[in-house]
Records
---
Amino acid sequence: MVGRIPVMNVMPLVDLGRQPAKATVGEPLPVTATVFREGHDRLAAEVVLVAPDGSRRAPVRMTKHATVPDSYSAWVTPDLGGAWGFEVHAWSDPLATWEHAAGVKIPAGVDVELMFTEGKLLFDRVRASLRADQTFEMDVLDGAVLAATDTGRPAEARLAALQDPELASVLHANPIRELVTVEGPFPLYADRPRALFGSWYEFFPRSEGASIDQETGKVVSGTFRTAVSGLERAARMGFDVVYLPPIHPIGEVNRKGPNNTLTPGPDDPGSPWAIGSKDGGHDAIHPDLGTIEDFDAFVARARELNLEIALDLALQAAPDHPWATEHPEFFTTRADGTIAYAENPPKKYQDIYPVNFDNDPRGICAEVLRVVRYWMSHGVRVFRVDNPHTKPVAFWEWLLGEVRSTDPDVLFLSEAFTRPAMMHGLGAVGFHQSYTYFTWRTGKTEIEEYLTEVATESDHLMRPNFFVNTPDILHGFLQYGGPAAFKIRAALAATSSPSWGVYSGYELFEHVALKPGSEEYLDTEKFQIRVRDWAGAEAEGRTLMPYLTRLNETRRAHKALQLLRNTTIHYSDDDSVLVYAKQAVPGDAASDTVIVVINLDPHAVHETTVHLDVEALGLGESTFTVHDEITGAEWTWGQHNYVRLDPFTEPAHVLVVKGAR
């Protein structure tokens, strides 16, 4: 039933409360509700967090929206990991009702002494509720009672005393609650901070330390021992998570050759996503990469470098995977008796059998959970899941729930470039992060809309990870934009999303596509081992590594860049210049505040005026100093500011507000 004070449209709410909304330890979370009542009496509302142990945190008063009728909001912050709840408490507010009536009636000479008497009775009630140590509040209320009862003073002076901000603050902090209505609790789940914030770096271990045999001309695969160099490079650039494509044995049946051809040579390594051979399946390591002991040493070195290893979880099999003979029921058998291979028309993946979750759901569930727990036992606490949208959502709800029940620190990233409903659904049932449409948002308006969407519209369902490129996706913007395009996309991803990612080779400006109109890399690393001269590129200055390092240093230094729900869009007079800001405490200029201005055109210099929504930032009409974290330059800014951004030098300002004056 509707409560005495109706509370409706509560958010965040996922699937009518059947799933918990996304939350993170230490991350401010907005709670909104529609709260109203009959008549003209005033009301108030607050949010109460319910901790995993059932205890309640101090209430946080909700603020009424300035323009949207009956809309209230408050920011709350879970301080522990686990299953939380939140309640919205609404009540009739006799203090606010009296304050409004007194402010209208007393100046008009209506019921003057009656209003003062009613005020005095309310002040007495508040004073009686105070603790013994609240002496300041008692003194303020004693003064209010004196003003209300001092008939020898003019009514205007008595009212002025009762409208003093100091008294208003005391009354606001010590409300009288009548007709209290409680809605909730509504579920939240607070994950560890890495679920929200992190810089990801992807590389293929077989390419790290790979070499060309000088006698035979053949490529020699890297190993987990040589791939430690990739870990050290990622750590030097300030990344937090190293993501590895599948490390398992690669099928020999229908193996693909270079550039996804069907005619491999005897030395072609095949695709790591064609998992399984005579050497084992999802719980085995490709012999060329080393042993499980080598993998353990690799994970241990990552830990020493303060890196986490994310392992690819690709639930598919090569035709010679052990599952194909031991568990043919895991797959789909066609009318001619053959097992169906994977297709995404017009793409065909003859080297991969997709798993059918309906033939033997109990068996496949048990096997996948076994595989996941096996790698967990070897130090993997993060999984990047390949194409989860091609598997039943109910399966993921079960699997992620099983893992969370024993190991809530284990995180899953969804690689689901698909319909919004599926992306949101996967997030709702437990995926901690998701790939997004970021790659294909390159124009100013569509970027503004997308940043608003992920920060304020879908944030309760999914957390974005803005990868600038992947082994599958080389956007045309990077193919034809030159080095400036790589800087632009890196700056945008690193400052607009708390999680972002880079696939190795990005820092070397790799940009050649398989063919015009394709997003596939030429000589893609998916089918070939790539030998890169990292040291030579660095020595000759042909690398973006210093820029990526500076971006990651800036992210670590500023809490504002580690949060999702704090983005505000600002304005410029140029259709190629994007402006947005992030604050550690939204609307509080005293908190960490970062303003980002980016020239989205990699081919031309742009000059324009930037217009800040200073009210949204809490800056008012003041001027303030901004410090550019990229160049070290400083300027005095205000509401309107001239900028000139040259993509051939520095296409972006990442400005930290140092103080209003």
---
Amino acid sequence: MAERTVDSAAPARGAARPVVQAEAALVRHYRRLVRLAYVALPADRDRHSRVLAAHSAVQRALPSRWTRRSDPAPGDEDPAYTALRLRVLRDGLRPRPARRLLAPRVWGLRLFTPHGGEQDAALEHALATLDAPARAAFALRVVEGLTAPEAAEVLRHAGVEQAERALDAAAGVGAASEPDLSAFDPCAVRVQPTDLLSRRRTLTAVLLVGVLGLTTSAAVLSGTGTGTGTGTGSRTRTGPVASSTGPAPAPPVAAAAGPARLVRVPADLWQHTARVDFTAWPARGDRREDAALLGRATTAWERPGPQTRAEPGTDTSPPIAPPRLLYAGTVDGAAVVLLYDGQRLARYTDGRGGGLDLARADDSDVTTAGAVVLHRRGTSVRYLLAPWVEAAETRRIDRPETPARPLDHPDGLTPAAPGGVLTDCRGATVLQLRSSSVVAEKHAFLLADLGGLVPAHLTYSPPPDHNQPARAPREATGPDALQAWARAGCAVPDGTPGVKQLNLWAFAVQTLPQNAGSASWVCLRADRWTGEGSAATAVLLPAAQGPQRTGGGPGRSCSRFEQDTLGWAWWRSPQGTEFLLAAGSRRVARLTVKGPDWSTDRPVPDHTLAVERPARTNVQVEGVLDGGTRIGTPGGGPARGAADPRRSLLKQPNRSAP
């Protein structure tokens, strides 16, 4: 039986017209369809364009005439919805989805999907690497929740010849893990204005073009009515007017992307403001007046593309405010521009292999805004230092007794300095900076390059004085702090780009049994620019042994919001006796250890415990605070039943910074 086409103008008997059914299905499932379109559309567009394109694709899916098919696409009980979904997928599978006259338009506003976390940013980058069929497969598996066979059949109906191959590619970015797609919802958008000054200039240019156009038309009509009627007479009349209108219509995009919108602050602003952060950086560099270079840099940020790279948790949308120019110059043969919009730093590197790098930098201060990585080559790094940095030095984190080496920085730019990864126990080179006395007298601080744009600020909390309140973190430049970081630095829980501050807290000192010396218990905390954080406890044993990590995990442990902690580890004395060591912070009054066939529950006036055992077994360690609250180790402590403590020693390979 041949397919029967139902005219939308003719009502169906006993049921609503099919086109009305389609409209009802579209309205009922609109959010679901728009999210499907957003995920399936090309990821090389900026988010504003993708939001509008997703809504446009769904609205175009409503047909003017509806065709009833004997073989509807599988995967849904509603044939109207499955047909709409098929049309949306076919739109997204085009090499470049068409722009239609009736597509949604927004004047004067920019639309962005909600901010996501690190997993959302990683998913965004992963989707950008997929082709159209693989994105469609991912959308069907994750947004629609179809099984692999169901998704393959829908893809084949949509025209994908190698559906299984597309599903395999989609599975590589975690289609089966059901990630949270809250940051991929084009129906829950943030709205921000476009650049108001550029928009005003554009409107003025349009009005000027309109006036000139009317003038030209009047001149043409005048020449036609009063001339001799020959072609020569007409051209003679209109020639001068036509030539005068040639340069008038300037492209509005060029005006919006030009360097005129960049904000520049006075060179001495940092000496007069109470807000000493990236907003007080002046424009520096030998190419800060290069309009062409600055135009390319601002355009790269306003129109994110494949060469846009963002650190985890960093939004890739265009600037939220007119950017501040911090630097524009040539570094190691490459043109580099550094911009700041009040929330993020953008480093643009011109030429082949360059692109735009984005990083969170909101809520910075005199230390976290002390330096930015301008250029990286191998393990060498060139920094741009804050204008308030009076002296700069480098030092090896694993050599606290070795004096720091001076680092020149004319106009804030340093020569190539050795880098290295902090989590490598063989040592890394860190920056030691000293602020001008105009900002803070005798204020020195340490910054560690972690492979991103902004180095992490290193701080230190000394062991507690049990007769005094808990001590706040201080700069890690004193002898005790340098010694502690030299021994425990490679045990930090997070040494990746996006970490804002790393603090080392020595929460207990324990005298070891059998006159074996003493051990220090430390908690290392990593706080990211996104507000997330993680902590790890470690014990520093005598002699040349490395830090033995005793527990760790995400959360706010060892921060000012959660100041109670404990750690435990197995230790073999020089005489060969096995001990279980445990230690708690200043409020831990009792320590409890439970094994398979034994247990210990003791008050600990010095907040430490050593229990001799003939062999290592699975244990559970808890601390009881002076108020009766029980706590455990961050992340649950060492691996339960681990017989060899060397599994916890962080002997990582020597990785070079990216």
---
Amino acid sequence: MSQMQHDRPKDRPWLFRTYAGHSTAAASNALYRSNLAKGQTGLSVAFDLPTQTGYDSDHELARGEVGKVGVPICHLGDMRMLFDQIPLDQMNTSMTINATAPWLLALYIAVAEEQGADVSQLQGTVQNDLIKEYLSRGTYICPPEPSLRMITDVAAYTREHLPKWNPMNVCSYHLQEAGATPEQELSFALATATAVLDDLKGKVSKEDFPAMVGRISFFVNAGIRFVTEMCKMRAFVELWDEICRDRYGVEDPKFRRFRYGVQVNSLGLTEQQPENNVYRILIEMLAVTLSKKARARAVQLPAWNEALGLPRPWDQQWSLRMQQILAFETDLLEYEDLFEGNPAVDAKVAALKEGARAELAQIDSMGGAVGAIDYMKSRLVEANAERIAGIEGGETVVVGVNKYEAGEPSPLTSGEDSIMTVDPEVEADQIGRLNDWRAGRDAAAVKQALADLNEAAITGANVMPASIACAKAGVTTGEWADVVRAAFGQYRGPTGVSPNPSNRTEGLDDLREMVDAVSDKLGRRLKFIMGKPGLDGHSNGAEQIAARARDCGMDITYEGIRLTPDEIIAAVKRDDAHVVGLSILSGSHIPLISDFMEKMRENGLGHVPVVAGGIIPEDDAERLRAMGIARVYTPKDFELNTIMRDIIQLADPERIAAE
């Protein structure tokens, strides 16, 4: 044993988590229990899009989305099944849930009580960060002000009843996925945290407030530039300490700690040579583990093949083993901070802090994060455009994508079961159990519980007690959210895509000339409609396609996320579109696009070319082409100008006449 090990005990490792959930509560429960048996030390629950956006599995908007990107939870019975034989009083559970966070926490509390747990001992986190949903992920329901109120309702309730629970996980992860620079990730996340704490001050006593500040946690991203990312984490630690001390007067250093969990970057995972992603994930993990001063409290890693589809249990196990090898086989946890006093690190941290403070001052001048949502969204779209342009132009090297592209075919991606798929029968099974649940409950108790929830929402009372009563009465996710929608209204977030062309037109001269020529033949400006059908809120790709089409000189319409096929078709008719683009990243492309193409033909629009993009396996791409989709794009199609050329050619009346 080394002298270092004699001198001081090893640090405890971070929590090992795997972000997981799919198909049904029963299947997800089996996966959780299997992962825990493999050495995972905390749960990280992924919910499907209907659950995240407050719809039951049989709602029109849920079609094709049930169980795809997470587990469907419609009622207390589903939550019971999800945590069957998992003692919640011994678990640390992270739930990636935002708009419906009060509801999912209410269901979790109700199940814990049924298990006989002491609710005051429950440990875990609800993400509960709506501001980043408006900016990057799109699972919001209500406008910002009532959403902020529900965030702080959860915080105030947990202070009194679940003192070990983290009521909010300020999530900068998706900001980086949307293209944020490190300075933007720092400032936008910290601005969100201050908006919540400013509102929370009115809901807890002055004596309790410092401890509530100490319960705010963060969920961050770590990209491939791991020195910068490690410095970013040190900057987060120092800026948060400064804000807690100077803005909120928190004296106890324990309550000023920057406590964060992390999933490393999924944006940089490549469809080409996907085995390279294993190295990327490992290097990114080092950014949040090497520096003791800024080490993550919990780490979850994506699987190497997530750019191809849903990872299998083996793929998730491989990522879990990566964490365990670093924690238990290396000597990392035997040392103090490795970077303290390093001049290069100190200089980079200082520069990041300076850039973040400048952004924070700009956001503060707009009234804080809620008032600056449009500004922050537009900044993210611009930053992402610059990131993509760097990859397209070769200034940013991505191995296997724009450099060293020649390689051997991967044996890991061959075979029928190389990617996990969700059985289409899952949706019917879930709906059948939902109908049985509705038939077996006390209708009068449900009606009264929903009336009490509505009363709490309208009067300004904390929504948590009424939500827990709803959970116990048998209310469904859609019923809970319908009350919230009726009381607070719905919201459409900004797209960040201005109708005015940007200054970023370098290298687009040929494409602009092609657009002009085709527009002359058409007798009006080439009209391109970009649509996002279904509940998928990951809009980065759609935004960049719309922005590049605009900069090429097309007349574009992009109305944002969560549109029904009928709403997109209405826009096609209204604007007499020449080409339509559809973007779906949730895996629901087959049912949604099939429905869309059928309705296009019914409306006499079968002649309008349609292109589609998403995480689409080749077998599915063939099916889409057989439905009449003109072009299918996946993450490997990173050259936007090639896509633009396709769109222009599809609109060319001479091509159409030749066909």
